[in-house]
Specification:
CATH topology: Jelly Rolls
Bound molecules: zinc ion
Shape: elongated
Strand content: 15-25%
CATH architecture: Sandwich
Number of helices: 5
Distance between the termini: 33 Å
Number of strands: 11
Radius of gyration: 19 Å
Order of helices and strands: HHHHEEEEEEEEEEEH
CATH superfamily: Jelly Rolls
Structural class: alpha+beta
């Protein structure tokens, strides 16, 4: 049962393809769990298509149709190989670094993504707090397994956290299972050990 969803602005940016890769992967992880947001995304994509139809026509070069048909004849690129069979799509096909221990009961595995955001997997053991941090840009976290709680409530598998401001209190893992999350940020500055790891790893 999903409780926490991305904002419509985030879904619109995802539909338009303007979210940086790491943030788009977090949103896609939520979309894999959430039929409600998949419906919203379909509506946004249809709206975008309708807007395109309303644009005034522009002149094309004389061979534009031939070039388009030529491109359609080319075979589709092969799907990316599955690199991480233990993870759900689309995270099973992305390149990840190694696990780094970044404090008692917390490990971090960076995502090898391009673009203006950085991200990775965080695995925290029961009762542990996620690292304290402040934000300068957009930040998103999607729970893959286990659960955590913060001032916005409880977040379980599929829930997406998109905090607007600095956390007053760091999120804490609740329940008996470790909590695995995919996180991404445009400008999160981690404090403590994970901040040290963030600077060491360079993302
Ligand atoms: Zn949703």
């Amino acid at each position: 049962m999903i409780v926490h969803h991305p904002s419509e602005a985030t879904l619109a940016a995802y539909a338009a393809g303007t979210l940086p890769e790491a943030l788009a992967l977090v949103a896609a992880s939520h979309l894999g769990h959430c039929a409600t947001c998949r419906d919203t995304l379909s509506t946004l994509e249809a709206t975008g298509g309708a807007l395109l139809e309303d644009l005034p026509p522009v002149p094309l070069s004389i061979d534009a149709l031939d070039r388009l048909l030529g491109r359609m004849d080319q075979p589709a690129p092969p799907p990316l190989p599955i690199l991480n069979p233990e993870l759900p799509a689309p995270l099973n096909r992305v390149a990840l670094g190694r696990w780094w221990p970044v404090g008692l009961g917390i490990r971090y595995r960076p995502l090898k993504s391009s673009g203006a955001a950085w991200g990775g997997l965080v695995l925290a053991q029961p009762g542990r707090s996620f690292p304290r941090h402040g934000h300068k840009g957009r930040e998103m976290t999607c729970v893959l397994s286990g659960a955590f709680a913060d001032q916005d409530g409880k977040f379980a598998a599929g829930d997406l956290s998109e905090p607007a401001a600095d956390h007053d209190e760091p999120p804490v893992v609740i329940g008996a299972q470790p909590c695995l999350c995919i996180i991404a940020s445009e400008g999160m500055h981690l404090r403590g050990l994970l901040g040290w790891a963030q600077r060491m790893i360079g993302r």
